[in-house]
Amino acid sequence: MLDQEPTWQKSSFSSSNPNSDCVELAAGPGGTVLLRESDHPAAVLSGTPTAVRMLLTHLKSGAVGPPTAGSRRGSGRCG
């Protein structure tokens, strides 16, 4: 549990619309990085900066498989 609410930073791929859903990052305790999807803010992932960088590099590479039934398909940009 966090002592105070983190300061979340929305992805630079987000539109200027404040109601757009996107990935957000924040500094966590002990030098960790917090990640969340803005439309599900209670679900927060935490990792080391190296692990988060590796995750983002993997996602950007397109190595993740195609969406499954019931998942949202987007343009790759938020908002």
Shape: globular
Estimated helix fraction: 10-25%
Report the major sheet. 4 strands, antiparallel
Count of runs of 4 or more consecutive helical residues: 1
Which secondary-structure class do the elements indicate? alpha+beta
Strand tally is 4
> What is the C-alpha radius of gyration, as a whole number of Å?
13 Å
Q: Beta-strand level of the residues, as a percent range?
A: 25-35%
Strand order of the largest sheet: 1-2-3-4
Instruction: Report how far the terminal alpha carbons are from each other.
Output: 29 Å
How would you describe this protein?
The mean pLDDT is 80. Helices cover 15% and strands 25% of the residues. The chain has one helix and four strands, in the order E-E-E-E-H. It has a four-stranded antiparallel β-sheet. It has one helix spanning 49-60, and strands at 9-10, 23-27, 33-37, 40-47. With 79 residues, the protein is of the alpha+beta class.
Describe the structure concisely for a colleague.
The chain is of the alpha+beta class and 79 residues long.
SSE arrangement:
Elements: E1 9-10, E2 23-27, E3 33-37, E4 40-47, H1 49-60
Antiparallel strand pairs: 1-2, 2-3, 3-4
